[in-house]
Design goal:
- Keywords: Aminoacyl-tRNA synthetase, ATP-binding, Cytoplasm, Ligase, Nucleotide-binding, Protein biosynthesis.
- Catalyzes the attachment of glutamate to tRNA(Glu) in a two-step reaction: glutamate is first activated by ATP to form Glu-AMP and then transferred to the acceptor end of tRNA(Glu).
- Belongs to the class-I aminoacyl-tRNA synthetase family. Glutamate--tRNA ligase type 1 subfamily.
- It comes from Colwellia marinimaniae.
- It is an enzyme of class 6 (ligase).
- It is a single chain.
- This protein has 19 helices and twelve strands.
- With 470 residues, the protein is mostly helical.
- The chain folds into five domains: 116 residues, HUPs (Rossmann fold, 3-Layer(aba) Sandwich); 92 residues, Alpha-Beta Complex (Glutamyl-tRNA Synthetase, domain 3), CATH 3.90.800; 73 residues, Glutamyl-trna Synthetase, Domain 2 (Glutamyl-tRNA Synthetase, domain 2, Orthogonal Bundle); 52 residues, Orthogonal Bundle (Helicase, Ruva Protein, domain 3); 105 residues, Orthogonal Bundle (Arc Repressor Mutant, subunit A), CATH 1.10.10.
- The strands form five sheets. The protein has a three-stranded parallel β-sheet with strand order 1-2-3, covered by helices on one side. A three-stranded antiparallel β-sheet has the order 4-5-8. A two-stranded antiparallel ribbon has the order 6-7.
- The longest helix has 21 residues.
- It is elongated and about 105 Å long.
- It starts with a strand and ends with a helix.
- The protein binds glutamic acid.
């Protein structure tokens, strides 16, 4: 039998970090076992489900490169099937029409509570046959009255729930639409899901779902409930904590490899190993090694992982992602150095690709404003002479590459008996507009020769102004 997992988001928002981790673990488990991975959109809540959210979920999955092998299936396209199963449950005596109103059920709960029992529907219509013909009804599942349900959870271990604690849950509303617990069971059954991986906020649903599987004579899947993710303040991760949408991490400049690697470790470990390639994740991941306790989100660690991947992945690949950010920031990179070369020199200078784009603008765009502090410090009257001399030497170069550029700067310093910095710093400020840049010879080499000479002239105007003012 093929192992089959699924990711079953409700399209009521973007793909958030918790959902992405669930999707990742489901996907990994299927990959590892040569199984299938289904994407199922649980869109039965018509009021809250939106197409924008379906798109956002798929964008997130695609960006993370979590490819589903089947689907996407949409629950709204399966109403006929749910109806069929509900009829089947009615016919087999495993479900019944309940004519109690919501108010009546509230009273039943109150009564049960007053008696010190479990607040639940009292089963009034469970065995009645005197059905009114003119009243609305819901359909309830006949939950077993006795015995226990044991969830053999791969992550949490055995969890035992007594049937007395469970009520006869509604499987079809008065308008005939099926409820979550019914649709999930029908889908997991029809789609031959063998392993249900989901957040532990669903644990209370699981015994109910197991009982429905049994009533249908369907095989019960295995379960793995993942503990929640906490924010840096120890509270459940939510919008308050800043970026929780997967696509927001893209916008903030993280590589998908970094977010995936970060997420795989957020709730699972393999010794003290931190960095996992996709292949390693697939090979080493196992649901049974997932943590039982909640995990805390740690942005510093995510940044660390991101820096690792920016520095170690193929620069040409990182450049594809950088290109997106350049465009996002309105930087036209059609003329200028290859982005892969930018990645090579900037990767260890930034935390994110967004920052990398920001600090690389001068490679592609001219500027008239220079960093005021850097100008004040490095474009002083005394630099006129070295700037003129280095310009002359740079202008004479026929091979515009790091070594001769380095020699030109060095020769200038030697000739004028200055330290390298006294030539290099003003040159750097002139060429890049600021006092920080990667190694100067490489930076200049990546810039066009003509452009560098023009920028030296532009800086000399500032130097002249200061001479005039002094
Ligand atoms: N649609 C449910 C949710 O988004 C998940 C259901 C499941 O995984 O069983 O929370």
């Amino acid at each position: 039998m093929t192992l089959t997992t699924r990711f079953a988001p409700s399209p009521t928002g973007y793909l958030h970090v918790g959902g992405a981790r669930t999707a990742l673990y489901s996907w990994l488990y299927a990959q590892k076992n040569g199984g299938d991975f289904i994407l199922r959109i649980e869109d039965t809540d018509l009021e809250r489900s939106t197409q924008a959210s379906v798109d956002a979920i798929m964008d997130g999955m695609n960006w993370l490169n979590l490819k589903w092998t089947h689907g996407p299936y949409f629950q709204t396209e399966r109403f006929d099937r749910y109806k069929e199963v509900i009829e089947q449950l009615l016919a087999s005596g495993n479900a019944y029409r309940c004519y109690s109103t919501a108010e009546e059920v509230d009273v039943m709960r109150e009564e049960a509570k007053a008696k010190g029992g479990i607040e639940k529907y009292n089963g009034l219509w469970r065995d009645r046959t005197d059905h009114p013909t003119d009243k609305p009804f819901v359909i309830r599942f006949k939950n077993p009255l006795e015995g226990v349900v044991v969830i053999k959870d791969i992550v949490k271990g055995d969890i035992t729930i007594s049937n007395e604690q469970l009520d006869d849950l509604i499987i079809a509303r008065s308008d005939g639409t099926p409820t979550y617990n019914l649709t999930v069971v029908v889908d997991d059954w029809d789609m031959k899901v063998s392993h249900v991986v989901r957040g532990d906020d669903h644990i209370s649903n699981t015994p109910r779902q197991i009982n429905i599987f049994r009533a249908l004579g369907a095989p019960v899947p295995e379960y793995a409930h993942l503990p929640m993710i906490l924010g840096e303040d120890g509270k459940r991760l939510s919008k308050r904590h800043g970026a929780v949408s997967v696509m927001q991490y893209r916008d903030d400049g993280y590589l998908p490899e970094a977010l995936l690697n970060y997420l795989v470790r957020l709730g699972w470990s393999h010794g003290d190993k931190e960095i996992f390639s996709r292949e390693e994740m697939i090979e080493l991941f196992d649901l049974k090694d997932c943590n039982r306790a909640p995990s805390g989100f740690n942005t510093d660690k995510l940044i660390w992982v991101n820096q690792h991947y920016m520095k170690t992945l193929d620069p040409a690949y990182v450049a594809e992602h950088l290109a997106w950010h350049m465009k996002e920031q309105g930087i036209d990179t059609t003329k200028g150095p290859a982005l892969a070369d930018i990645v090579k020199i900037q990767a260890d200078r930034v935390k994110t690709l967004k920052e990398m784009a920001e600090i690389s603008r001068y490679f592609y765009e001219d500027f008239t404003e220079l960093d005021a502090k850097a100008v004040k410090k490095h474009l002083r009257p005394v630099v006129k002479e070295p700037m003129l001399l280095v310009k002359e030497k740079l202008a004479a170069l026929t091979d515009w590459s790091p070594e001769p550029i380095h020699a030109a700067i060095n020769d200038t310093a030697v000739e004028l008996e200055l330290g390298m910095g006294k030539v290099g710093m003003p040159l750097r400020v002139a060429a890049t507009g600021a006092g920080n840049s990667p190694s100067l010879d490489i930076t200049l080499a990546l810039l066009d020769q003509k452009k560098v000479l023009e920028r030296i002239d532009q800086a000399l105007v500032l130097v002249e102004a200061r001479i005039a003012a002094s």
